[in-house]
Backbone:
């Protein structure tokens, strides 16, 4: 226990004396953990219910196990953009942290000790975020539900402690290469490929999908109708496949775009953006994964929504309960919008971080007379270039799902052309998110940055 | 610097007369102090006396008489021993600048002003040597000997910089009154 | 000041520059003249304000007080856009490191200023290649800065600074991170090119051997330029 206290003190001392950007990382990590905990708690409590219940929120949407499982699925799916956000946050000030940990190794700290310190740094940030949300969640839960079941309490405890534990685990995994060598990444030859965090993210997503399937399956246990049970699962699988395809395509296309453009670009901004893509094509794919998934889900949903609304209007027995159905649709729409919002926040954080990391080099470019406008355009192009083809695929996939659903359910009476708008809007929003860091370009890229060797 | 060993070294490539030796010395060691003609002859005579060199022939085709010298086996042995032996690293510290500073303090002079002037002179010489070594067509011997001098002047300069910063302490030590 | 002007009006002149970074005053009334075709070394202890002086002279930073005149124009009063354009066309900069874009190949890094000026890609790369060849960076045109040695990277930086044919090159500790042989190659490349094309060079260094490449040397002391003969060498007064 005394070693733990010692490590804790070291971790605290190191964080205290660290760069302002590291505080940004801690704050954003806590925020991400809070979001993840909130979603997880809601999902856990809902999953603890079995059969019919009178749940006094959301227009009776949570009363039936069938709809409840849909909501749980949505909540868990929302964890995907949150994970992406956390992944971006982990990169804020990462170079500094890596140096510091490598310095600790040089100063004689053991591998285990450095791992514990890194885990404590992230774990404590996550714990703070998770505890704050848990307290508020439990307080508001007790107002609606006087005595939650033991299962609900277990779920709450599991989520509120599991999130920080997972955060710590992920930080240890992400740092395994720094920790291995005392010299760490003090000297970096060429940009790294960043394969580590990618696997961590993929692993986390796979785990999430598994949890979602189990949760959905458990709430369906009382449902006799098997075909109904399979529908959301199939939809989910198709969405995943299209999304993963878009992400893979994004990386491949980034690589190809970079190669083709770097060879002929006469425009300096295009040249810089293309070479950055060629050097690290998966960085773009990683960042855009959640956007692409969101686009597939979003355009697919528009199709489902249009069809359902048409059905509600058509059949009397549905029109009677129109409130119930529209509430469900609106809730899903809200979830998708929230997911997009988190994703764009992650994108903005990622762009800002990439700027902050490169600020000395960029300051040198400005000093050499490269106009801010060229650097700004390169920054935007880095986001835009790989996004166009993969968003096209994601949009096409999503729209395909929407049309397929509409035709299967309602014949040709309703065609969800609104689905086509989703990729366009997503593209615009991505550019806007990247553009939020343009003011930062002027603010951080100052000659003062040139003064430190 | 041992002139006798350098002359022995120049003789190692074959017999040669005094004037030729001086010319080859000045060519081979650019930026070094040029050998005086008289010094070449006295050194050669001492080498003959010690059995390290001997008279090869005396030429007198036109103009003055020229004595051609060559190295003996004993001379070759002596040369090999000298060339392989290490040069004693700074056995006595001879530092004229330091001596001038101390004297200047003792005689109530202005050691700081002296250091400034000395530094300026050093820099001027370093610029000269750099110009010599960067001149188009400078051969490697010129570059290397200029580099040698530049490094020594640079060391002097650095010593002067640290000394200038500690001049007050030095004054107190040398002149406690 | 002890300047005696053998030539006509100086190409670049600073008068009474004052510049503060937060509470520390890096420059406290520094004045300096750089003549056409002259290589001028600025030396001084670390923290004496050398880099800040260079930033003010090159139009990278604006002085709080004082004036910077380049070819009859007041740099300290020009808008940022004009300054940026001037830095592209008339000035070249070489820093200790960091001025190469890590993602671009050596030849593209050198070609970048030409591309910014609107030269076509093919021609820009061809001209960049000539400069690299001239500075002895052959066969490494397609390598990225991370794959080059320090000396090679610095010669690529030099090529990038010189490719547009600038009138003034600003070099801030160009050999600061190099061993003596690499330093010598970089400085020889810089000095030869400058002499050949009549380019003025403002060379900032704390190293006497690097400063010795210059025609003239001034020393900066606590944010003020003291001419060489008066350099107080950090004597406590």
Residues:
């Amino acid at each position: 226990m005394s070693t733990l206290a010692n490590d804790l003190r070291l971790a605290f001392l190191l964080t205290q004396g660290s760069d302002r950007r590291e505080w940004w990382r801690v704050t954003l990590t806590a925020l991400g953990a809070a979001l993840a905990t909130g979603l997880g708690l809601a999902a856990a409590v809902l999953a603890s219910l079995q059969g019919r219940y009178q749940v006094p929120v959301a227009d009776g949407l949570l009363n039936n196990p069938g709809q409840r499982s849909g909501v749980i699925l949505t909540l868990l799916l929302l964890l995907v953009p949150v994970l992406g956000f956390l992944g971006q946050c982990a990169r804020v000030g990462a170079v500094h942290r890596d140096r510091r940990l490598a310095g600790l190794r040089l100063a004689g700290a053991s591998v285990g000790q450095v791992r514990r310190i890194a885990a404590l740094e992230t774990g404590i940030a996550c714990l703070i975020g998770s505890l704050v949300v848990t307290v508020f969640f439990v307080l508001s839960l007790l107002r609606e539900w006087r005595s939650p079941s033991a299962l609900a309490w277990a779920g709450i405890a599991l989520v509120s402690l599991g999130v920080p534990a997972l955060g710590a685990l992920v930080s240890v995994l992400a740092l395994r290469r720094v920790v291995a060598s005392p010299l760490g990444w003090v000297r970096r030859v060429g940009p790294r490929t960043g394969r580590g965090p990618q696997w961590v993210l993929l692993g986390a997503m796979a785990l999430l999908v598994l949890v979602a399937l189990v949760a959905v399956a458990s709430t369906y246990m009382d449902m006799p109708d098997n075909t109904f049970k399979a529908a959301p699962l199939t939809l989910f699988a198709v969405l995943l496949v299209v999304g993963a395809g878009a992400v893979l395509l994004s990386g491949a296309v980034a690589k190809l775009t970079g190669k083709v453009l770097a060879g002929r670009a006469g425009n300096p901004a295009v040249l810089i953006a293309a070479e950055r893509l060629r050097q690290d094509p998966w960085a773009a794919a990683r960042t855009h994964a959640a956007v692409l998934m969101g686009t597939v889900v979003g355009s697919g949903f528009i199709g489902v929504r249009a069809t359902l609304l048409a059905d509600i209007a058509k059949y009397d027995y549905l029109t009677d309960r129109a409130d119930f159905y529209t509430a469900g649709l609106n809730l899903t729409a809200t979830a998708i919008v929230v997911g997009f919002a988190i994703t764009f926040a992650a994108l903005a954080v990622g762009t800002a971080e990439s700027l902050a990391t490169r600020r000395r080099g960029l300051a040198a470019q400005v000093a050499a007379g490269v106009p801010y406008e060229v650097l700004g355009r390169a920054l935007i192009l880095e986001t835009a270039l790989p996004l166009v083809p993969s968003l096209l695929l994601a949009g096409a996939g999503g729209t395909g799902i929407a049309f397929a659903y509409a035709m299967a359910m309602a014949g040709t009476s309703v065609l969800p052309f609104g689905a086509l708008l989703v990729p366009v809007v997503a593209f615009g929003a991505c550019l806007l998110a990247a553009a939020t860091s343009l003011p930062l370009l002027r603010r951080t890229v100052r000659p003062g940055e040139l003064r430190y060797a | 610097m041992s002139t006798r060993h350098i002359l022995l070294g120049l003789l190692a490539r074959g017999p040669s007369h005094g004037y030729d030796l001086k010319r080859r010395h000045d060519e081979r060691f650019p930026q070094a102090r040029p050998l005086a003609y008289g010094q070449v002859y006295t050194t050669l005579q001492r080498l003959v006396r010690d059995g390290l060199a001997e008279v090869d022939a005396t030429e007198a085709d036109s103009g003055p008489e020229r004595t051609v010298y060559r190295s003996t086996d004993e001379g070759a042995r002596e040369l090999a021993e000298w060339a392989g032996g290490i040069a004693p690293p700074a056995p006595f510290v001879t530092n004229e600048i330091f001596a001038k500073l101390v004297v200047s303090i003792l005689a109530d002079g202005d050691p700081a002003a002296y250091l400034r002037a000395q530094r300026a002179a050093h820099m001027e010489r370093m610029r000269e040597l750099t110009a010599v070594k960067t001149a188009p067509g400078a051969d490697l011997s010129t570059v290397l000997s200029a580099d040698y001098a530049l490094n020594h002047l640079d060391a002097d300069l650095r010593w002067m910089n640290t000394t200038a910063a500690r001049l007050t302490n030095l004054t107190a030590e040398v002149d406690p009154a | 000041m002890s300047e005696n002007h053998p030539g006509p009006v100086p190409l670049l002149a600073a008068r009474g520059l004052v510049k503060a970074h937060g509470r520390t005053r890096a420059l406290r009334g520094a004045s300096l003249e750089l003549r056409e075709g002259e290589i001028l070394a600025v030396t001084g202890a670390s923290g004496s304000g050398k880099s800040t002086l260079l930033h003010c002279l090159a139009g990278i930073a604006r002085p709080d007080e004082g004036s910077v005149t380049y070819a009859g124009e007041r740099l300290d009063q020009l808008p940022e856009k004009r300054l940026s354009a001037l830095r592209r066309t008339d000035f070249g900069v070489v820093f200790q490191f960091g001025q190469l874009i890590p993602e671009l190949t050596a030849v593209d890094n050198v070609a970048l200023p030409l591309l910014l000026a609107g030269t076509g890609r093919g021609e820009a790369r061809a001209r960049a290649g000539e400069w690299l060849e001239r500075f002895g960076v052959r066969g490494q045109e397609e390598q990225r800065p991370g794959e080059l040695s320090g000396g090679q990277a610095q010669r690529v930086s030099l090529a990038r600074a010189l490719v547009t044919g600038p009138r003034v090159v600003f070099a801030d500790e160009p050999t600061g991170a190099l061993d003596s042989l690499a330093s010598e190659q970089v400085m020889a490349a810089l000095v030869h090119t400058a002499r050949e094309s009549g380019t003025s060079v403002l060379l900032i260094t704390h190293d006497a051997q690097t400063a010795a490449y210059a025609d003239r040397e001034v020393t900066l002391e606590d944010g003020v330029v003291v001419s060489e003969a008066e350099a107080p060498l950090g004597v406590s007064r």
Remarks:
- DSSP finds 17 helices and no strands in chain A.
- The two ends of chain A are 41 Å apart (CA to CA).
- Residues 229-453 of chain A form one domain.
